Amino acid sequence: MADAKKPRAPFAPWDRRELPGLFSVEESARRVGAYKWCELKLFEALGGWIATVPELDVKMRLGAHCYKHAWHAELWHKRLPELREMNPDRLSVAPNEDMVNFIEALTEPEAPELTIEKLVGVYRVFIPHFISAYTFHLNNTSDITDAPTMRSLRFILQDEFEDWRDGEMLIQSLIETPAEVDRAAAHQARLEKILLAAGGITGSGTIGFNTLKHEGALA
Amino acid sequence: MRKFFPVEDLARDERFNQITMNDRMADQRTAITTDSRPSRAANRIVPSRGDASDAARGLMHGIFVGEIQALEGAGRTCWDFTTGEEAPFELKLDMARQCWDEARHVEISIKLSDWMGSEIGEYAENTVLFQAACSSDPVLRLAGVNRALEGLAIDVFTTMKEFGEVAGDQYLEFAEDWMLADEVTHVKMGSDWLRKITENDPERRKKALDFQSVVDKLFSYGGTRSESQESPIGLARRFRELAGFDDQEIDVIADLSLAALEERKAAVLEAQAAHN
Questions:
Q1: What domains can you pick out in chain B, each with its CATH number?
Q2: What three-state secondary structure class fits A94?
Q3: How far is CA A40 from CA A72, A83, A106, B123, in A?
Q4: Using one digit for the tens of pLDDT, what is the confidence trace for B166-177?
Q5: Under 8 Å CB-to-CB from B66, ≥6 apart: which residues?
Q6: Higher-scoring residue by pLDDT: B151, B20
């Protein structure tokens, strides 16, 4: 064994973490607040839809996924005070009015024959946007200062990937005709256009484009 | 999507046949029997009962559709109320957790029904559970669903677990025990939230407890659940205590259930007399 008193490098040769990050404390908190708002809206919608879908397998999946997104919202809710936001509700808001419009359009379908639209909205539009926003955050925040956010992001991303796969497989199993392919695509396009106007889950700059360097950030 | 979803619109595939509690109670077959066998002094579901397999299968299907409605009810509580203003964020998190638990219970019930030899839709679906989840006050939903109905689920799962144990069916006993653990959690959620939200609002608490009492009586199914051996389902005192019921509350349910059994017996005698 090496001499216990011999000085060692504080960062091992294999530890490539870096200090700089794109987000200030405030910007990280703003993003986390938007994540919480979006996850909350998603789990509420999934819960509401359970009674409206006749397909038993879909009904059960929505129940399981409802909880996962509630758990994500809870993680973000708990992270906010650690980012100096002592009133988490203040930042648990939509990034802009277009995002509110997106949620309204997402949750519009109710009739039992609209399961494809319900699933497309969640699994072909909303969840892919979550994956993008979370991945951007994970890849651009400080490996050292924002490590607690990164830990949550990794747990949540694992859920998002699994749920996306579940949902996509359900959609593929429900689509049986070319007309239904068109229906799914039309609904997806409609929702994507609203999200485009919103700029993504956290608004303009969600995945970097059109992002201004935030005060206090190191890049 | 609307806020507050009517029970008549619950979405089902073509295998399901839905009935209301009124339909069930109005069905003369439940009151008038042409069976020449003497009525049983003990109706508890035990393997020694001649029709034990059929009764257990019927109860299992009842559990299955009850779990679907519990899933739907918890989901609607996530959606129907504005977060923070009408229902606390943490309450909604609990309801979302319940959604996942109930979804698993539906899965378990399907596997168990298959194991016991019945099929989805083989029995009618009574939609009364979801009706209890339609209140416009989240506290009433928690009292009616989490405390009354999930409390009944504790009794049902305990009875089924014991049935599995006595019958030597480890598959059934194992699954029922796991569901029982979840139900104790759900009842405790209801008890905790009821106390927390109505801490300074005795009138609202009374209203919620009154509603729970109505649902408890309704779900005594005319004596289907009570401490009498004449009831197929027993009252699981120990697990109810774990779930936050005190002795007095359990006594009230025991008395209510027994009264419902006596009422039902009188109604059956009356119906039989009228028939003859």
A1: 49-221+232-245 (1.10.620.20)
A2: coil
A3: 8, 19, 14, 37
A4: 989 999 999 999
A5: B129, B149, B153
A6: B151
Cross-chain CB nearest to A110 (options B2, B72, B99): B2
Could you give the CA distance from residue B224 to residue B216 in angstroms, rounded to a whole number?
12
CB contact under 8 A, A64 and B95: no
Q: What is the ipTM of this complex?
A: 0.92
Backbone phi and psi for residue A17, each to the nearest 5 degrees, phi listed first: -65, 145
- What are the tokens at B36? 């020449």
What CATH number matches the domain at A25-198, 3.40.50.970, 3.30.1330.10, 1.10.3720.10, 1.20.1260.10?
1.20.1260.10
Whole-number Å distance between alpha carbons of A45 and B3: 11
- Buried b or exposed e, range A160-191, using 16+ CB within 10 angstroms: beebbebbbebbeebbeeeeeeebbeebbeeb
Spatial CA neighbour of B233 closest among B244, B219, B218 = B219
* Chain A residues lying within 8 Å of B65, measured CB to CB: none
Q: How far is the alpha carbon of A133 from chain B, nearest alpha carbon, in Å?
A: 23
Joined tokens for residue A218: 């190191």
Chain A residue with minimum CA distance to B107: A60
Mean pLDDT across B114-125: 92
DSSP SS3 for B47: coil
Q: Which residues of B240-259 are buried (b: 16+ CB within 10 A; e: fewer)?
A: bebbbbeeebbebbbebbbe
Contact A60 B107 (CB under 8 A): yes
List pLDDT tens digits, range A85-100: 888 888 999 999 999 9
Can you give the residue ranges of every domain in chain A?
A: 25-198
Output the pTM of the full model: 0.90
Q: Which residues of B touch A56 (CB under 8 A)?
A: 13, 68, 106, 120
C-alpha B67/C-alpha B104 separation (Å) is 9
Q: Do B71 and A50 touch (CB under 8 A)?
A: yes
Contact list in A for residue B100 (CB cut-off 8 A) is: 63-64, 66-68
Contact B100 A67 (CB under 8 A): yes
- Residues of chain A contacting B10 with CB distance shorter than 8 Å: 51
Residue B190 CB partners (closer than 8 Å, separation 6+): B142, B143, B145, B146, B147, B150
- CA dist B58 and A25 (Å) reads 58
